[in-house]
Amino acid sequence: YRKFGTFMLKHGSKEALQTTACIIKKDKENNPIIFILYVYDMLLIKKKKSNLNALKQHLNSTLSMKDLREA
Question: Which residues, other chains included, contact 69 with Cβ-Cβ below 8 Å and sequence gap of 6+?
Fold first, then answer.
């Protein structure tokens, strides 16, 4: 959680509920992106799918990730 939380806070996100397991960040269009980290899984919630692949590539450059597609 610490590595994920540090990465997200560096990129302008805010912690939700005082935990790094749920982080909310705004995209360039000011729409919220919700990141939920649970054990070894991460769920990205975004209203519009635009630029989602770029976001996942950016996260993968720092974190070791495997994309399991839509939930």
Answer: none
Question: What are 18-29's pLDDT values in tens digits?
Answer: 555 888 888 888
**In this structure, are residues 5 and 15 in contact, taking their beta carbons and an 8 Å threshold?**
yes
The encoded tokens of residue 10 equal 């560096």
- Would the pTM count as exceeding 0.90? no
Pick from 33, 59, 27, 56: which is nearest to 46 by CA?
33
Q: With CA atoms as reference, report the closest residue to 7 among 69, 67, 70, 60.
A: 60
The span from the CA of 66 to the CA of 21, in Å, is 18
CA angle 8, 12, 13 (to 5 degrees): 55
